[in-house]
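To illustrate the input format used throughout this study, we show a single complete record. The first block contains the structure-token representation of the backbone; no residue identities are included at this stage. The design step must infer an amino acid for every position from geometry alone.
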């Protein structure tokens, strides 16, 4: 079973979900079923995403909530004593070939002893294709829908992210920012931490209404809900075609 191979590399899986987004939770449950696990698995934790009342220096309330949610998962994982975790945001879709790609990527991830692992990502220049490619500490890696961390990295990332919250927006030392940018700052500050990128990607972002940014074009179009759902389904199939 694919889940058994996953949990041989990561001893716990966290899924971040806003309680109000039952649509995403249900879709995420479907993704977990694809790999042979679910929210009833004791190795899986559904983390209630933080929903702050104000942006407090972040570009949006949603961006702050995402940052705080990631920080909350890292704190929980450290307190639980997990050696290595996989963190999924609730808009993560596993790619079509996940059955074939995941075991190979996990073997490479284990061998590379990566402190940070991106199962999905966005980069201006696509990385060299390999089961897992090592990222340069200065590489700008976007997206955080599928990430892995080992215990020592978690222990160092928590105080780093906490300090960001104490600084003003735009601080040259790193203030409030989107969490993918915060991880980039952390990686640059800790070049000794190896970062691995799955290539091809193992997970992509599922098209769905965002809680972080203003509504996208699809949500601004004067279309009935069934038409939007049909278009999202087509985009979803295209994104996960790997």
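Output of the design step:
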């Amino acid at each position: 079973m694919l889940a058994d191979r996953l949990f041989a590399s990561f001893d716990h899986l966290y899924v971040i979900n806003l309680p109000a987004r039952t649509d995403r939770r249900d879709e995420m449950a479907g993704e977990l079923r694809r790999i042979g696990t679910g929210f009833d698995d004791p190795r899986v934790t559904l983390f209630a995403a933080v929903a702050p009342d104000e942006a407090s220096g972040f570009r949006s309330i949603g961006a702050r909530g995402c940052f705080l949610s990631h920080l909350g998962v890292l704190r929980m994982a450290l307190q639980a004593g997990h050696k290595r975790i996989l963190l999924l945001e609730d808009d993560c879709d596993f790619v079509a070939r996940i059955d074939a790609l995941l075991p190979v990527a996990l073997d490479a991830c284990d061998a590379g002893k990566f402190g940070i692992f991106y199962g999905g990502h966005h980069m201006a220049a696509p990385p060299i294709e390999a089961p897992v490619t090592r990222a340069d500490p200065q590489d700008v890696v976007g997206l955080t829908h599928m990430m892995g961390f080992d215990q020592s990295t978690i222990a160092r990332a928590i105080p780093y992210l906490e300090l960001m919250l104490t600084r003003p927006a735009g601080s040259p030392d790193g203030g409030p920012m989107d969490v993918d940018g915060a991880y980039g700052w952390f990686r640059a500050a800790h070049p000794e931490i190896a970062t691995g990128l799955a290539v091809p990607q193992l997970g992509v972002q599922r098209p769905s209404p965002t809680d972080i940014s203003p509504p996208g074009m699809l949500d601004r179009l004067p279309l009935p809900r069934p038409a939007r759902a049909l278009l999202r389904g087509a985009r979803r199939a295209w994104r996960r075609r790997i």
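Structural context for interpreting the output: The mean pLDDT is 91. The radius of gyration is 17 Å.
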